[in-house]
Amino acid sequence: DGGITQSPKYLFRKEGQNVTLSCEQNLNHDAMYWYRQDPGQGLRLIYYSQIVNDFQKGDIAEGYSVSREKKESFPLTVTSAQKNPTAFYLCASGRQNNNEQFFGPGTRLTVL
Amino acid sequence: AQTVTQSQPEMSVQEAETVTLSCTYDTSESDYYLFWYKQPPSRQMILVIRQEAYKQQNATENRFSVNFQKAAKSFSLKISDSQLGDAAMYFCAYRSSNYQLIWGAGTKLIIKP
Questions:
Q1: B45 to A92: CB separation less than 8 angstroms, yes or no
Q2: Which residues contact B93 (CB under 8 A, 6 or more apart)?
Q3: Residue A66: half-sphere exposure toward Cβ, Cα within 13 Å
Q4: Is B44 exposed, middle or buried (CB count within 10 Å of its CB: 0-12, 13-18, 19+)?
Q5: Which of A9, A22, A24, B113 is the most exposed place for a label (fewest CB within 10 A)?
Q6: Does residue B3 belong to the interface with chain A, where contact is any CB pair within 8 Å?
Q7: Minimal CA–CA distance to B47: which of B59, B29, B56?
Q8: Are B4 and B93 in contact (CB under 8 A)?
Q9: What digits encode the pLDDT tens for the residues B15-50?
């Protein structure tokens, strides 16, 4: 079946550690996105990529990094520089310049 | 910069009744898209309905319809014959000219049996 997968579903991290969240899609979409969701707020864009080997910062990129070495994969690294990383992270994909984004099931990151 | 506002943090409706969720946005663009997404307790984000700004006709998807008022920059979602499975967070989103989505804060919809 086609879709977007994110792993793990729940992730715990100690303060000061980097952690990488996985996002894979088999929809043959060019564009991929990472969002952060906090309680009572809408989604905020962290990073996005319209094409392989290229990505741009979103509104809240500080403390995060990404790579786009393959069309199917867009991993997000939450670094120790991110001051408040506990949140729900959603990955999405879409056709380049298309109007709809398809979402993965999300990863809940908790910093202990 | 574009903004999206959902002024109702929470709404409740009796099962089988109709409910309307509000959304307003601010933009200087003339061509854009608007979306309503649903996020049930599973937290999977699901597209409910989409509206192209250049279309005057309001979009409809089964029990879901929108009231798009371009001049007023309003984009409300009407859910008819509400069902228990409609209980979720509903987010309004605006697609800007650089293809990014700008999101409202969401409205929690409660369905009373």
A1: yes
A2: A42, B4, B34, B35, B36, B37, B101, B102, B103, B104
A3: 29
A4: middle
A5: B113
A6: no
A7: B59
A8: yes
A9: 999 999 999 999 998 889 999 999 999 898 999 999
Confidence of residue A98 (pLDDT cuts 50, 70, 90): low
- Under a CB-based contact definition with an 8 Å cutoff, are residues B70 and B51 in contact? no
DSSP designation for A41:
S
Cross-chain residue pair A42–B103, CB shorter than 8 Å: yes
- A53: pLDDT strictly greater than 90: yes
| Cα of A16 to nearest chain B Cα, Å | 28
Partners of residue B101 in chain A, C-beta under 8 Å: 33, 43, 45, 101
**Element holding A26 (H helix, E strand):** none
- The pair of structure tokens assigned to A79 is 């670094």
CB-CB neighbors (< 8 A) of B95 in chain A: 99
Could you give the CA distance from residue B42 to residue B1 in angstroms, rounded to a whole number?
Answer: 32
Those residues whose C-beta lies under 8 Å from the C-beta of residue B71, and which sit 6 or more positions away, are none
